[in-house]
């Protein structure tokens, strides 16, 4: 009988430690913040930009990428992202997909415009620059020109 009591107490301790770990991991994770408002940006391509990626203005994190999807009518990538509630972006702001380094993570960089009219929740940033495709650039350099093949 004493053996069952020890096993039960040990099991309870293991479950308590597991629950504490889950709470710790959840509080330390980069899950999208529920606060803020949602905007969109449309790109020709959104290579490497995944949900959960950072949204930055002047290098400071101000939001999170919520979703990426393909518009079946225009064949363009639509990126939905949240921005802090206290931050209002002008309608002529631009968005670019950049990386933290040569092979680093991608994030959405927003450059605020100069207009006095601000984007409303749900509106789209129309001035965008797609992600730089490193493999395509290397191919152009090695094989010469946009079509490849060079002057051989």
Walk me through what this model shows.
- By secondary structure, the protein is α/β, with parallel strands linked by helices.
- The chain folds into 2 domains: 1-30; 37-139, no CATH class.
- Helices cover 24% and strands 32% of the residues.
- The protein has helices at residues 2-28, 134-143, and strands at 37-43, 54-57, 60-71, 76-83, 94-99, 106-111, 124-125, 127-129.
- It has an 8-stranded mixed sheet, with no helix packed on it.
- It is elongated, with a radius of gyration of 23 Å.
Supply database-style keywords.
152 residues, alpha/beta, 2 domains, 24% helix, 32% strand
Summarize the structure.
This protein has 152 residues and is an alpha/beta fold. The chain is 24% helix and 32% strand. It is elongated, with a radius of gyration of 23 Å.
Shape estimate? elongated
Strand percentage: 25-35%
Number-wise, the strands total: 8
Strand/helix succession: HEEEEEEEEH
Q: What topology, given as strand order, has the largest sheet?
A: 7-1-4-3-2-6-5-8
Class computed from helices, strands and strand pairing: alpha/beta
User: How would you state the average pLDDT, rounded?
Assistant: 82
Number of helices: 2
Note the main sheet: 8 strands, mixed
**Which stretches are poorly predicted, pLDDT < 50 over at least 5 residues?**
none
N-to-C span:
86 Å
The radius of gyration is 23 Å
Count of domain modules = 2
Helical residue percent band? 10-25%
